[in-house]
């Protein structure tokens, strides 16, 4: 065993890699690996030989990203593939994901002499789950309309009632003016 | 209460002097010009509806452009209604009578277009009703919607109720009028016969409205200031903003009423009713209001300028010495300092000089609102990196200018049409003043109201 007291766990996720390879024959595959409690993203780059058998691509620079709402967040610098065609990058522990902790990881190779442009993505649940607060039950200025502070509701409602009550009183006075005119006609 | 007797024949010079008249060539030209501006604005608004707010220069930084500064201007101008018809009434200022209706129609026209321009500023005007259905009572925006709606209704009532006896005069003294016009006046007159009871009701109603409109008017401008002051933005984060806005509104509104009064006085030859003394008094009022506004300006700019906190300092530099400096100093000097100096002298309070000064104040007031809204937005509280260059500047597009001009033209058109249909100086209140001043001849056989 190369690393004492450690264990090696290969964690292959069920999610299906969405391969959008530009080079029709070369491939890039993503796996998620946990080693010594450290989460790692592994990209394996292969290219078929003359017999159609996949062979490892060495020395290709792989860029890892996490897909965010409005762009791609890089995970460290580019990592070159080793003799096995593998590139490993540490997955940060504090990346916020969706409510289940899912994020999409993207691996990219750009303008490589052997494989050209390659890109793939895969979903992992290693991110920190985001807890959505569905309404603070406390009454506050920043709460939803249903949870407005009672003193504010009472104050605003009282002022509106007082002012509009006076307006309706004036409208009744207009009706009284009209009635007084009718009586004069009679 | 004694009914007010208004002679309905040609011997009553008030009728010949004050009844609405048909437009002459100048009037038709003026209406045509206003309609042209409105049509151009309507075309621009059609483009905005079709393509969205992208036709404006409003972007992520300047999310409120000249629509909102124009809105604040209209709210300011509308305050004049409460100044003349309520504050001067409650303080027993006798010379206000010929100015009351002018002030009220300015207030109604201004508050109408303040409300309209808010809808124009919305990217999805079809969702306007969401404000009422989904509004949060914690939000100053909802308070503003409530107070503007209320002020609009109260201003309309303050215009309409004192107009009733004069509508009845129009109804009964225009037999040659088209039938629609007769019906129009008859409908609006509410069976007005000029009885003691009817006069008692309108006197009471006017008094109630005068008391009601003062806090409401202070409220509308204070709440509008809170749209800004309840944020942390540089230039807006100020506890001074409420009174600062109210003071500015009184100044702008007073100047507005002076300018409109001057035009109407000259066009309709109302020198007998609106005298040089009125302008002199309005001038004194305007200089007082300008001094109060100057005081608040000193507080608003000098105190933060003394401290020059990081973000405030950046904002103030852009006003004092930066790209907005020419506009800022022009507004301060021509819209405030110069009027104070000119109006302190009696000659400066003659009709023509005070008219010119008032125009300066009104134009200054419009640009002042521009300076309140725009430069602050161009200095985001949180610095944002790598933003497009266009976000750092705001130059209104032709669509924005056209729509804004149309709103101003619309407000002037409301005033113009009102003057065409109704007496702009109250006939019955002028008669009442005369009754109070001299003994009424009771033996006259002429037809009277309430006789």
List the helices and strands and how they pair.
The complex is a heterodimer of chains A (186) and B (451).
Chain A: E1 8-11, E2 18-19, E3 27-35, E4 38-48, E5 54-56, E6 61-67, E7 72-74, E8 79-80, E9 86-90, E10 103-112, E11 116-124, H1 150-185
Antiparallel strand pairs in A: 1-3, 2-11, 3-4, 4-5, 4-9, 6-7, 6-8, 6-10, 10-11
Chain B: H1 13-18, H2 25-51, H3 66-78, H4 80-90, H5 97-120, H6 130-133, H7 140-160, H8 164-173, H9 179-189, H10 196-229, H11 241-267, H12 276-307, H13 310-320, H14 325-343, H15 351-377, H16 398-421, H17 427-437
Helix pairs in contact in B: 2-16, 3-5, 3-10, 3-11, 3-15, 4-5, 4-10, 5-7, 5-11, 5-16, 7-10, 8-9, 10-11, 11-12, 11-15, 12-14, 13-14, 14-15
3D structure, described in words:
- The complex is a heterodimer of chains A (186) and B (451).
- By secondary structure, chain A is of the alpha+beta class.
- Chain A folds into two domains: 8-124, Immunoglobulin-like, CATH 2.60.40; 145-185.
- Chain A contains one helix and eleven strands; from the N terminus they run E-E-E-E-E-E-E-E-E-E-E-H.
- In chain A, the strands form two sheets. In chain A, strands 2, 6, 7, 8, 10 and 11 form a six-stranded antiparallel beta sheet that branches. In chain A, strands 1, 3, 4, 5 and 9 form a five-stranded antiparallel beta sheet that branches.
- In chain A, strand 10 (103-112) and strand 11 form a beta hairpin.
- The longest helix of chain A has 36 residues, at 150-185.
- Chain A is rod-shaped.
- Chain A starts with 7 loop residues before the first strand and ends with a helix.
- The model of chain A is unreliable at 1-22 (pLDDT under 50).
- With 451 residues, chain B is an all-alpha fold.
- Chain B has a single domain (13-431), classed as Formate dehydrogenase/DMSO reductase fold (Up-down Bundle).
- Chain B has helices at 13-18, 25-51, 66-78, 80-90, 97-120, 130-133, 140-160, 164-173, 179-189, 196-229, 241-267, 276-307, 310-320, 325-343, 351-377, 398-421, 427-437.
- The radius of gyration of chain B is 23 Å and the shape is globular.
- Chain B starts with 12 loop residues before the first helix and ends in a 14-residue tail after the last helix.
- Mean pLDDT of chain B is 89; it is low at 443-451.
- The chains are: A alpha+beta (186), B mainly alpha (451).
- Chain A binds chain B through residues 141-145, 148-149, 152-153, 156, 160, 163-164, 166-167, 169-170, 173-174, 176-182, 184-185, and chain B through 134-138, 143, 146, 150, 153-154, 157, 161, 164, 190-193, 195, 197-198, 201-202, 204-205, 208-209, 212, 216.
